[in-house]
Amino acid sequence: MIARVVSGSTGASQLDAALRHIRDRVVPAWRASSGFDRVAVLSHRSTGRLAVIGLWHGDLPPIDARSLESLNEHLDQARVDAWFSVEISTGHIEGDAGRIVSAAVQPGSGENVIARFQNVIMHAATAQSGFRGGLLLMHEDRRQVVSIGLWNSHAELIESERTGYFGRQLPRLSRFLDGPPSNVHYDTIIAM
After folding, report:
1. How many Å is the Cα radius of gyration of the chain?
2. Taking the CB of residue 184, how many other CB atoms lie within 10 A of it?
3. Which of 10, 44, 55, 114 has CB atoms 3.0–4.6 Å from 14's, for a disulfide?
4. In angstroms, how far is CA 189 from the centroid of its own chain?
5. CA 44 to CA 30: how far, in whole Å?
6. How far from chain centre, in Å, is Cα 83?
7. Mean pLDDT of the chain
8. CB burial class (10 A; 0-12, 13-18, 19+) of residue 183?
9. To 5 degrees, how large is the angle CA 125–CA 131–CA 134?
10. Of 122, 149, 126, 148, which is closest to residue 137 (Cα–Cα)?
11. Where are the alpha helices (DSSP H) in 64-147?
12. How many other β-carbons are positioned within 10 Å of the β-carbon of residue 57?
């Protein structure tokens, strides 16, 4: 399975327009492509941050590029658009809150990150109250990893940090990473 991740910021006042555009233009173009499975849109209402995650079976599909080019009109900061392999998928790709953690991986350490995530971190995540599911994505060059955790509520996501769960996971990966990871919260998830 492969994933396309498009993320950026619209500004809070433009978020609804960006979400309509994603629903009306981007998602239909993705659905029309071969092997399409599903898409989730994560957003943060007060900041206007958003991330669109599409999942496909098989190889890179041909997609009408105009659907994403027009999305640029709605994104005003730090647009990222990249393809990843889905290394791990567990639980349900749904919820009301999410956390996306991304990090650069040291050369030759991609398989170590995947193994540690699968054997230790995912087991710890599934034991957390409110955890719905997660994905581990790895860029084809094995130098970038993205972890997406989905939760029943934003309060339960925050509780996982307050109790130390999240903080205990980072040291388990740090020796394989090339610098500290980014950690971004999203308070709304829309499955399309």
Report:
1. 16
2. 15
3. 10
4. 11
5. 23
6. 11
7. 86
8. middle
9. 70
10. 148
11. 66-69, 110-116, 122-126
12. 12
Please give the model's pTM, rounded to 2 decimal places.
Answer: 0.88
Query: Alpha-carbon torsion 73, 74, 77, 78, what sign?
Result: negative
127, two tokens: 């034991």
Q: How confident is the model over 39-43, as a mean pLDDT?
A: 90
Cα gap 91→89, rounded to integer Å: 7
Percent above pLDDT 90 for the chain: 29
If you count them, how many residues does the chain have?
A: 192
Output the six-digit token pair for 20. 């309509």
Q: Give the whole-angstrom CA distance, residue 65 versus residue 130.
A: 37
Dist. CA 11–CA 173, nearest whole Å:
32
Distance separating alpha carbons of residues 9 and 108, to the nearest angstrom? 32
